[in-house]
């Protein structure tokens, strides 16, 4: 069924092409795929928006996303899934077309914002994990100083043993009170 339908559409397109139903590709569309030279159309040649985009224009319109979007692009390439491959593919296509014609730079804006947001989120997540680990080490240092007194040490070890028993046999080492719950709450998506 689909093969027959495809054959009918192909024959119809061939007949319409022979009767000059489809016009030639416009100078604007041709300019996207061919290096920009004189098109012969003075209106298209005189409009600055149809010229190739200068590198300075990217900074002018995208500002800090010029530095954060490539970082997000690289992060999206790790652990590729269908969702993660969409943004780099979208970025490559919109960058290609925005480099060809100045007015198409606006197409790159949403993609650069999404990639920049991805880059910022990954960096901030890494910073957050580092700070939580540092905070955990500081808490461990405080508890080791508190454990010098036998009463505090026995009370803390009794609490951590009770928590380990409540968590089950998989918890090999007891963690500090509240620290594991906070870390787990923050690290889970």
Describe this structure in words.
The chain is elongated, with a radius of gyration of 30 Å. With 189 residues, it is an all-alpha fold. Mean pLDDT is 77; it is low at 170-175. Helices cover 72% and strands 0% of the residues. It has helices at residues 2-18, 27-33, 42-46, 55-62, 65-76, 82-100, 105-146, 150-167, 179-187.
Give start-end ranges of low-pLDDT stretches.
170-175
Shape: elongated
Question: Which structural class matches the secondary elements?
Answer: mainly alpha
| Quaternary status | single chain
Q: Largest sheet, if any?
A: none
Please provide the ordered H/E string of secondary-structure elements.
HHHHHHHHH
Number of strands: 0
Q: Give the helix tally.
A: 9
How much helix is in the residues? over 70%
How many whole angstroms does the radius of gyration measure?
30 Å
Strand content: under 5%
Distance between the termini: 46 Å
- Average pLDDT, all residues: 77
């Amino acid at each position: 069924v689909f093969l027959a339908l495809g054959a009918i559409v192909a024959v119809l397109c061939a007949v319409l092409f022979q009767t000059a139903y489809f016009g030639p590709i416009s100078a604007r569309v041709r300019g996207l795929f061919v290096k920009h030279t004189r098109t012969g159309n003075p209106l298209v040649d005189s409009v600055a928006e149809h010229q190739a985009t200068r590198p300075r224009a990217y900074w002018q319109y995208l500002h800090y996303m010029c530095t954060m979007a490539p970082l997000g692009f690289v992060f999206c390439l790790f652990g590729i899934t269908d969702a993660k491959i969409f943004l780099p593919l979208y970025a490559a296509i919109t960058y290609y077309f925005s480099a060809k014609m100045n007015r198409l730079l606006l197409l790159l804006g949403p993609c650069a914002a999404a990639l920049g947001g991805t880059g910022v989120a990954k960096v901030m997540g890494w910073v957050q994990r580092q700070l939580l680990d540092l905070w955990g080490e500081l808490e461990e240092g405080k508890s080791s100083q508190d454990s010098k007194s036998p009463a505090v040490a026995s009370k803390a070890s009794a609490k951590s043993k009770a928590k380990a028993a409540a968590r089950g046999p998989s918890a090999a080492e007891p963690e500090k009170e509240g620290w594991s719950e906070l870390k787990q709450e923050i690290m889970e998506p």
